[in-house]
Amino acid sequence: AQSVTQLGSHVSVSEGALVLLRCNYSSSVPPYLFWYVQYPNQGLQLLLKYTSAATLVKGINGFEAEFKKSETSFHLTKPSAHMSDAAEYFCAVSDQVKLSFGAGTTVTVRA
Amino acid sequence: GAVVSQHPSRVICKSGTSVKIECRSLDFQATTMFWYRQFPKQSLMLMATSNEGSKATYEQGVEKDKFLINHASLTLSTLTVTSAHPEDSSFYICSAPPAGGADTQYFGPGTRLTVL
Predict the structure, then answer these.
(1) Cα gap B89→B75, rounded to integer Å
(2) What are the DSSP E strand ranges found in chain B?
(3) Is A20 on the interface with B (CB under 8 A)?
């Protein structure tokens, strides 16, 4: 069994400020972990993924995430928010067959 | 990166009619595709796993006779919502992992279904 918990359904940041989105996972097998971004009325775009290689993963658009096994966490960060980062973000865990998604975090960016 | 398309992007139908949604992998073959449903302001919920050349596998609580899935080729899976009702109105999204690359799924742009 696998599941993901995203802490905080809504995050509001100022433009230029740090973005931090929290994700904790549960998995009975070594997990593959993902962050996806979704813009309104669109599908999901992969930001980054962890598949048992380096624990610090760099993705697109300046995002990165760190896999911490001891904390069962995979938090997403970006040092400086842009207006274009306003979107819905989903953390997901895979058992190499199926994906299970978190509830999502809506990010708004204030000018 | 790999591209997955869906057609139509948006459909409005009357209650009681059936609607077919297509999911295509444009530049890779996919023996498996996944169908998700997403209600407004909610996460994606896996409905079923579509397997090329065999029957789909449905998640618990998903009516297989209502949501018919056909995976007739390595690049096409279809989802047919039969006898649609207003409660079936949702955003339907498909995904596919490239063959041999099961660690990543590529998502289609989604289909917005509205049942009047």
Answers:
(1) 26
(2) 4-7, 10-13, 19-25, 32-38, 44-51, 57-58, 67-73, 76-81, 90-96, 106-107, 111-115
(3) no
DSSP character at residue B98: P
- Could you tell me which chain A residue has the CA closest to the CA of B1? A46
Could you state, in chain order, the average pLDDT of each consecutive group of 10 residues for chain A (111 residues)?
91 97 91 92 90 90 95 97 96 87 95 94
d(CA A8, CA A29): 26
10 Å Cβ neighbour count for A82? 13
The residue among B32, B33, B36, B44 with the most chain A CBs within 10 A of its CB, best to mutate, is B44
pLDDT digits (tens, 9 = 90+) for B47-75: 999 988 889 999 999 999 999 999 989 99
CB A67 within 8 A of CB A74: yes
Residue given tokens 């775009």 in the structure block: A45
Which residues fall within 8 angstroms of residue B17, CB to CB, at 6 or more apart? B83, B84
